[in-house]
Amino acid sequence: MRIVALTGAGMSAESGVPTFRDAGTGLWARFDPQALATPEAFAADPARVWGWYRWRAAGVAAAQPHAGHAGLARLARAHALRVVTQNVDDLHERAGSREVVHLHGALFTSRCSRCAQPAAPEPLLRPARAGDDGRVPPPDCARCGAPVRPGVVWFGEALPSAAWDAAVAAVREAELAIVVGTSGLVQPAASLPGLAAAAGAAVLEINPTPTPLTASATASWRCSAAEGVQRLAARLDAGERDPAALIS
Ligand code: APR
């Protein structure tokens, strides 16, 4: 079966990586995205933004993929399953998923903020002394000397065109789209389930709470990512091959 898994921050919640919009615990409940996740914020105070992404990177590095990540990686060995994620963490890859499409970039890639020269890997995890306010000056570009920035997509920036094209191709070919752990609020990623449905795919939402995507989904499972992926894998392992029956 041709499956596309469209994952958001809720996919990483059970690994202890905070989501963005969960009340109280979400990053945007604790930090100001305009001051930390925009090109203007980085230009105004590179050390504050770089220090915050180092904090996020340290949290991801200390986290472990859970059974939901492992389940998707295992399913990809028996089915044509593509992972398209809004997440910048590397938990899908560490669970064994290959060719993960990162719509919003990847935390462990960095590039020059001026000439876009890719920086050496892992600069976010290099030893550095954080100031008392968490500010850490970013490294300078080896080619032009401008500050290096995290390889993530900030608010107001375009998605990487290759990633977007790969995501659209994956949803258009899919017989089943599983939408795991996203609030469905951020475009253009939030339009992908609709593109899948328009191309004839059954759409399963796995999320403990309803979202704007719920109304148009073929089915919604009110459960966690780990529970939902394992339930789906068990049904596929039992031989169910009709997408609508599989997710009913
Ligand atoms: N399993 C599945 N879903 C969960 C779990 C869980 N254990 N815990 C929370 N969720 C759900 C929440 O109910 C919510 O619908 O995950 C969703 C997380 O939503 P957001 O925090 O908005 O994350 P996401 O949809 O990925 O955000 C999209 O916004 O700020 C930008 O670039 C950022 O990629 C991000 C984008």
Describe the structure in brief.
The protein is an alpha/beta fold.
Description:
The structure is a single chain. With 248 residues, this protein is α/β, with parallel strands linked by helices. The chain has two domains: 148 residues, Rossmann fold (3-Layer(aba) Sandwich), CATH 3.40.50.1220; 85 residues, SIR2/SIRT2 'Small Domain', CATH 3.30.1600. Helix content is 36%, strand content 16%. The strands form two sheets. The protein has a six-stranded parallel sheet, sandwiched between helices. The chain has a two-stranded antiparallel ribbon with strand order 4-5. Strand 2, helix 7 and strand 3 form a beta-alpha-beta unit. Helix 6 runs parallel beside helix 10 and helix 8 runs parallel beside helix 9. The relative contact order is 0.18. The mean pLDDT is 96. The structure holds adenosine-5-diphosphoribose (APR). Adenosine-5-diphosphoribose binds next to helix 1.
Indicate the topology.
Elements: E1 2-7, H1 10-13, H2 27-30, H3 33-36, H4 39-44, H5 46-62, H6 67-78, E2 80-85, H7 91-94, E3 101-102, E4 105-112, E5 148-152, H8 161-173, E6 176-180, H9 192-198, E7 202-206, E8 219-221, H10 225-237, H11 243-247
Parallel strand pairs: 1-2, 1-6, 2-3, 6-7, 7-8
Antiparallel strand pairs: 4-5
Helix pairs in contact: 6-10, 8-9
The structure holds adenosine-5-diphosphoribose.
